[in-house]
Amino acid sequence: MSSQPANANRQILLAERPSGEPRESSFRLAEGPVPDPGEDEVLVRSLFLSVDPYMRGRMRDVKSYAPPIQLDEVMVGGVVGEVVRSNQSGLETGDIVLGMLGWQDYAVAKPGQLHKLDPRIQPISLALGVLGMPGLTAYFGLLDIGQPKDGETVVVSAASGAVGAVVGQIAKIKGCRVVGTAGSDAKVEYIMNELGFDAGINYKTAGNLGAALDAACPAGIDVYFDNVGGPLTDAVIARINERARLIICGQISQYNAEKPEMGPRNLFHFIRARARMEGFLIFDHAARYAEGQAALGQWIVDGKIKYREDVMDGLENAPKAFIRMLRGENFGKQLVHVADPSA
Amino acid sequence: MSSQPANANRQILLAERPSGEPRESSFRLAEGPVPDPGEDEVLVRSLFLSVDPYMRGRMRDVKSYAPPIQLDEVMVGGVVGEVVRSNQSGLETGDIVLGMLGWQDYAVAKPGQLHKLDPRIQPISLALGVLGMPGLTAYFGLLDIGQPKDGETVVVSAASGAVGAVVGQIAKIKGCRVVGTAGSDAKVEYIMNELGFDAGINYKTAGNLGAALDAACPAGIDVYFDNVGGPLTDAVIARINERARLIICGQISQYNAEKPEMGPRNLFHFIRARARMEGFLIFDHAARYAEGQAALGQWIVDGKIKYREDVMDGLENAPKAFIRMLRGENFGKQLVHVADPSA
């Protein structure tokens, strides 16, 4: 394949603010010229896009930790790409880089917007998974807020997902009993048989989630890493041990809701248990990414952290990949393959 | 009045586990002989009883941080009393003491169950209020978990109550904008005019609680000290600032519910704000009570902390006092006056 820019740059734009679940028509494929990098700028060709739950929040026109995507703007997202033209010292044609470049074939990046990847670390898509935002989220969220101790019980929701799988494996490294929840028997088998979790719950077929948690967590729950929210989180909160720590990292079960779902008021459990709950965003930990990547990289080398990717081919299929990920139909870190590196 | 034991000891027993709001018939007045203190034991005559929201939880037959009161057992509770007979060195007839002696005229205490009070600190009932469990709850809950900083906005619910009034006044000492909620205009006027709160909300007449909070907290909410729970807490959570701290100390709006009320799922606000919430129980801080009492005592002397008591007369009226306190009909720390000291 050629590393020369093509004449066209395809972009996926936000076409509407969806009410409820996004549809493919919530997005629009546009085609324009490949941009020219200016002084100190770099032209990057996308190789892999990441699609992640947080993007659903960015499609909503509400004040949050980051500004919303505007209509007809390119969808945001992390990209692993290849430098195809560089006016910036320190970056050369052929370099593999990571950046928030969005759902498009080509993007121009200004100084400071790209992180050069070590090409020896393979696959390069790891920079969007275990060694990227999801892995770092697991690392800092679990260790800083959760502070799991040897022998404690850790429950993680969306346990086969990009974040959850890493959370559970780090908790195993820390000597915990680890229980994961997921949405299919295959995922439950995977977290138990491949990733070494002690127990797994298929939340779709378990029936009474409380009874399933009681069976899986005979000593109660000390740490909960929540990616999902909803009735599962209610059932966990009813079972937290004294001094439990709850990391609220995601609430994917709620992201398509146009108004808040109702659930039982359960704050008295926090008094009973003197439990602590804290919301988590990875961007707050940017100063320590290198520490997290070093630890995660070593665990991968040592075979203590395994990963699984779910790759859909073609930029034009990014909306499909995003929608299936929101539905939990992916199995492993959801990626979109856009192009192969030239080398 | 005489300090000699009478021939009868009246006791208020738990007669039923109430469903919903306790009634007077949930309790029963029994009369028995005044007990004899054994070796190393002390006979104490009750002077003041405390009635507190936590007792509603103890009437329920569920596992919690403390065992439930059994049917036909004496209601638990803190008491300020006078030693009327002592077989224990270090305690003498006439000493004023604090202990968890329950709703009765007389109790026998074993070594370690009584705390001798400094009779110079007046009124002696302060040991059940600002200088006792409620004041210490405010002190450690606000300062340890809430960590209020100069210029931040602190919201406290049940703000004219035994805990809330102290929370708000400590927050003022720390330089915060302090907003309290209470259930009558008189209470709101009291916290603003007497206690120096910056704003007050009568939650019963405010209508839209969110709009009332917006008006009272133009810079959002940094610290929330919750004694109440329910819709007010929902409205606060929707307005927490980045890095907000929430102390869950009580949920009095929920204590009579036989099954959990439903409320909006709102954990995404914790992610948005990277907020921290923690449940609080004063008993965890027993090793530091002296520190808290010293600070609170000094603030009282300096006029920086004011207090208000709502005293009902007669042991037989303890159930009435308890029921009205649960309804929020008390105005200030609810006490029951049982007898006067002999001196």
What does this structure look like?
Two copies of one chain form a homodimer. With 343 residues, chain A is of the alpha/beta class. The first copy, chain A, folds into two domains: 8-128 and 308-337, Medium-chain alcohol dehydrogenases, catalytic domain (Quinone Oxidoreductase, Chain A, domain 1, Alpha-Beta Complex); 133-283, NAD(P)-binding Rossmann-like Domain (Rossmann fold, 3-Layer(aba) Sandwich). In chain A, 24% of the residues lie in helices and 25% in strands. The first copy, chain A, has nine helices and 16 strands. In chain A, strands 3, 4, 5, 6, 7, 15 and 16 form a seven-stranded mixed beta sheet that branches. In chain A, strands 10-9-8-11-12-14 form a six-stranded parallel beta sheet, sandwiched between helices. Chain A has a two-stranded antiparallel sheet with strand order 1-2. In chain A, α2 (133-146) packs across α3 and α2 packs across α8 (289-301). Chain A is globular. Chains A and B meet through β13, α7 and β14 of A and β13, α7 and β14 of B. β13 of chain A pairs antiparallel with β13 (262-264) of chain B.
